[in-house]
Amino acid sequence: MRYIDLLESGVIDGAPSTGQHFTISFDGAFRSRARRLLDAAMVHENCGRPRELVPFQFFALTYLTALAHRPLHITEIYSTYCGLVPYQRQQLDLTHLKYTQLTHFLSRVATLVDKGRLDIVELMNGIFDAHLPHASTFSLAVDSTDYETWARIRSFWSGGADPAPSTHDEDEASPATTRPTHRTWPILREDARLQRTKDNDARDGHRSARNNRPSGPFVGYDLTLAVNIRHFDSAETETVPNHIVGANLTPAGTHHARAALKIVDTVRSAGHVIADIVADRAYNLAKPQFWTLALREYGIEPVFDLTKNQRRPKPGYKAGTILIDGTLFTQALPKSFRDLRAHNRDMSRADHAELAQRYDERYLRYGYKPMTTGREVRFRGPVRADRAKSPIRCPNTPFSMRGPMDLPTTNCTDSCSCRGTCTIPDTYEPNVRQRHPYGTTAWLSDYYHRNAVETANSQLRNAQPLERGYTRVFGRIKTAFLLGFTIFAHNQSCIVNHFHKTGHDVPQAYAITHRPLDRPREAPRKAGRAEPPSG
Hints:
The chain is an alpha+beta fold and 535 residues long. It has helices spanning 3-9, 19-31, 33-44, 55-67, 74-82, 86-92, 99-114, 120-128, 256-269, 281-284, 292-297, 349-366, 441-447, 451-463, 476-500, and strands at 137-148, 187-188, 194-195, 203-207, 216-229, 244-251, 273-279, 301-304, 314-315, 321-324, 327-330, 369-370, 376-380, 421-425. It is 32% helix and 14% strand.
């Protein structure tokens, strides 16, 4: 007999659920925004007979399965139901359930999204965003990871071919062109990309090396995550739980920046404020309207790394200035400061700090400093024409020559750009200009909080584990819907562990995770045994 037949006949028992997990799942299903959206579409607007399996019950069972770190197969969710004790079934008002009801529920969700009645990104994020404090201000780190489809690959790649598109900056994809072929696979789809499996939404992508697995092509999806990090203007000693704030599942090879912008829209529509977003080079290499300018229109500061080409010097916005690493400098900048080496992950902490001091000195002495904030920022040169206290001495500015003799003296002749102001709009070199000058101590503190999203990727894979076969469904909608429950389980453990490891209770702002800390009780002393003498 099949495993599912053994469960339905009661020959074998289902997976048991602890009382704590049941309480968390019940509370999570009650507070879930996605559950309310499905209630409106499936229950309140339903014109047929009443549903035997309502969204609240499906959510509770799937939450229980994810919290137990079991794969999110329909059989595992049904096993969770079979393992419920009588009082748990009574709490859920679920006395009889068939395996086919679970599969039909998932298919109904996909149908509602396909018809445009629900948005899959809103639905996916609504599964786990009840963990977030209401109306919060976030600083986020964004990155994507690969998730391989369960479907078998039926046509492999030709040698030397790049499976993932190198650019997606066009507004619309070029129309697909058909060509005669004697093979069934691969199929050329409407998005001008090849389908190699029976999963209609899975596409070719490229993934990095991980866990002794070499880098190379794969077929599946890109899971883009936005993780909470410490706010940029908070104290260095302050820490925050690095829970996942938003997520988006897209076919592999999809434009990373556009996928992340969809998360930004979802988080902002929920009433939250995003102060800044840290991302790697894959994002600021996109066209400005798809990332850096789009974020600045929302009032969000982008923080990013620079490629070798982006770090090349170029003429500045004002005559007599030079733009290096996205920062405006006077032409009096010495050659020794024009080609500083880049930060890289192979450097030690001491090497990072030493190099950052060189960037700090360069910016302090020769960089243009912002005087205002907003869409157009007014900058002032390093030399003040009306006071002697300047970081450098310029012969064209007599006041600056009154400074200490140990200050650097420029070689300016008739005219220079060491003094004066200029107003620079957001549209000027948006992909290299950012809040803190590249390489400085302030930028280093900002950018290297991006490790939080790498940690979240690793934790998802190790705890669940999030690998091929974790969800055995086809299609982006069903896969994204189930992965929302996985992120719920990750956030639950992330928030609780963050506060409990320091001996603190979870604050009341975290409604689902707010539970007293289980402190160990002191062992009772045995009667008749005296205390050992001190010393």
